[in-house]
Write a structure and sequence with these properties.
alpha/beta; 248 residues; TIM Barrel; binds pyridoxal-5'-phosphate; Ala_racemase_N; 11 helices; single chain; eight-stranded parallel β-sheet
């Protein structure tokens, strides 16, 4: 059994090694700890070790955990598919939203930014392809649609565009997929120099993402351990019987 301190140190070392191998400064890659399905106490343990950025992929889990941990100076991020009717609740937590993949969602988030006078920080999520059904489950805008969506997001006063985000497809080597993402990010950055961040890389592929220029890696399993294979919500929504190998 490894401790949270060991796991955090190991992930930081992987990031630093990958950055140096790519000729990059290790401090140019930020670590976002994805705490989905893990209790608030696990977040506290990592926060006590100096980790401040945490991410969730469900609106209700984000709002509950952010409230429970309001005594800590944490920066929350939302990395899951977001329904428009939950956009305001997510934005009001102050979370950075990584999953903007369509204009109506961008507009819903922008309304909160205008209302509060604090622009909502967002990434435009790119669909890097993959098996049928994977995109529907994961979200993301088609690469061809990304430059126009990025233009629209950058033009909304209630939003601040930080860059692009993507998840590598499961049926492809991550390297070439992240290279496509990096090329698209460069194109967006040419028009929006402030949108210089790239959110890519998870426990299994952070090295490839850092090699492609990721400035923010989103790591769950390698920090917190394996997630349960079933969750009550997945069971209820999909009708999958308990015990089925349904990924969270
Ligand atoms: C769960 C999740 C991660 C973290 O994945 P791990 O493989 O557990 O590191 C990263 N990004 C998104 C969008 C996720 O949903």
């Amino acid at each position: 059994m490894t401790s949270p301190a060991d796991r955090l140190a190991a992930v930081r070392r992987r990031i630093a090694d990958a950055a140096r191998a790519a000729g990059r400064d290790p401090s140019s890659v930020a670590l976002l700890a994805i705490s989905k399905t893990f209790p608030a106490d696990d977040v506290r343990a990592l926060a006590a070790l100096g980790q401040t950025a945490f991410g969730e992929n469900r609106a209700q889990e984000l709002t509950a955990k952010a409230a429970e941990l309001a005594d800590l100076p944490l920066q929350w991020h939302f990395v899951g598919q977001l329904q428009r009717n939950k956009a305001a609740a997510v934005a009001r937590t102050g979370a950075v939203v990584h999953s903007v993949d369509r204009l109506p969602l961008a507009r819903a988030l922008a309304r909160v930014g205008e209302e509060t006078g604090r622009p909502v920080e967002v990434f435009v999520q790119v669909d890097l392809g993959g098996a049928a059904g994977e995109t529907a489950e994961r979200g993301g805008a088609a690469p061809d649609d990304v430059p126009a969506l990025a233009d629209a997001v950058a033009g909304l006063p209630g939003l601040r565009l930080r860059g692009l985000m993507a998840v590598a497809p499961r049926d492809e080597e991550p390297g070439p997929a992240f290279a496509r993402l990096a090329a698209l990010a460069e194109r967006v950055r040419a028009d929006h120099p402030a949108a210089a961040e790239l959110s890519a890389g998870m426990s299994g592929d952070l090295e490839e993402a850092v090699a492609a220029g990721a400035t923010l890696v989103r790591v769950g399993t390698a920090l917190f351990g394996s997630r349960p294979l079933t969750s009550p919500r997945v069971t209820r929504v999909t009708g999958v019987p308990p015990g089925s190998p349904e990924e969270v």
